[in-house]
Amino acid sequence: MELGQVAITVSNIQSALSFYRDALGLEFLFAPSDNLAFLQSGDTRIMLTKPQGAGEVGKNSILYFYASDIEARYKDIVSKGASGEREPELAAQMPDHELWIGFIKDPDGNLIGLMEEKR
After folding, report:
1. pLDDT of residue 59
2. Which of 5-9, 16-20, 49-53, 98-102 has the lowest mean pLDDT?
3. What is d(CA 46, CA 12) in angstroms, rounded to the nearest whole number?
4. 34 φ/ψ angles, rounded to the nearest 5 degrees
5. Measured between alpha carbons, how far apart are the two ends of the chain, in Å?
6. Residue 1: is its pLDDT beyond 70?
7. φ, ψ for residue 26, nearest 5 deg
8. DSSP classification of residue 82
9. For 13-38, how does the pLDDT look when each residue is reduced to its tens digit (9 = 90+)?
10. 101 beta partners
């Protein structure tokens, strides 16, 4: 089974859209209403949505995006409005690569992971 879509609960669709499109560089797909917007990240669609049911802003699962040159990408995203949570650092030494992880927050405080497998 392959992941097709992830919903992120946000307080303001336009602010979130600007962040995910402009700071993270995700491809904008469509916005069928003021309460929804869709972007593409590789094979996964990202849905930005207002809270529905039990959803709460800033209390989502953590999305991890692959980044090349994670240190530079982290600085670039922070310069475009993200809150820096934790600068990239070596998380694990694997047999054939180093796993580097860093964290930022979107305008609603949703934690976002950046990861790079350095070979």
Report:
1. 75
2. 49-53
3. 15
4. -70, -15
5. 28
6. no
7. -75, 150
8. P
9. 999 999 999 999 999 999 998 989 99
10. 89, 115
Using DSSP bridges, classify how beta strands 44-49 and 5-9 pair: parallel, antiparallel or unpaired.
Answer: parallel
Sorted by where each starts, the structural domains of the chain and their CATH numbers stand as: 5-51+62-118 (3.10.180.10)
The residue to which tokens 């976002």 are assigned: 112
pLDDT at 57 over 80: no
Phi and psi of 39, rounded to 5°?
-130, 165
Name the residue with tokens 């796993």. Answer: 99
Average pLDDT over residues 93-103: 94
Q: Where are the beta strands (DSSP E) in the chain?
A: 5-9, 27-33, 36-41, 44-49, 63-66, 83-93, 98-105, 111-118
Structure tokens at 106: 């979107």
Of 20, 9, 1, 35, give the one whose Cα is nearest residue 82. 20
